[in-house]
Amino acid sequence: MRDAREDQGVATTIRPASVDDAAAIAALHGRSFLATYPELLRTREATLRGSDARVALWTSRLQDLRAGRGVFVAQDSQGLCGFVYTGPTTDNDDSATRTGQVYSIHVDPDSQGAGIGSELLNAALALQLAAGMQDVTLWVVDTNLRAREFYEARGFRLDGARRKEVLALGTPEGDQVDVVRYRCRLGAGGNL
User: Which one, of 71, 79, 88, 83, lies nearest residue 16 by Cα?
Assistant: First the structure.
């Protein structure tokens, strides 16, 4: 599709993921959690023990991509270096016919800062726009300032919603964290 790091001499391709990518996505997801949340000891332990569960989770997600859902991966000569998972909102206070959601976006810690996250986010937003969504939301850990700055620089704004989540890649064993919701408008006057 697009090259995110051509200016640095590293060609990165953004493409739809397949079930064959499940293990690589699961491994990157774990690396990203370990690098982003080193202070969350329960999350760290659950991440270190949960590699098989992550592969099963991503295999299931990739086998069950319903209308409006998608997983895109970023790949360079070294392999998979990022992914984004998106679809209709799962929030009860939004309409799944008008609001999309970025469920998960991660870039390999060694590849951050090279534009890959922006390219992945653009792929997710394009899918949501094509599905007729007017807005896109995402949840982010309140203390993850780097991610929050990334989303704000791309037009996302806090919408006032907050909640607590267990951060452990689908297991109940991780740390409970505060998350905040961001929203952006698609189309005229918004992103894309």
Answer: 71
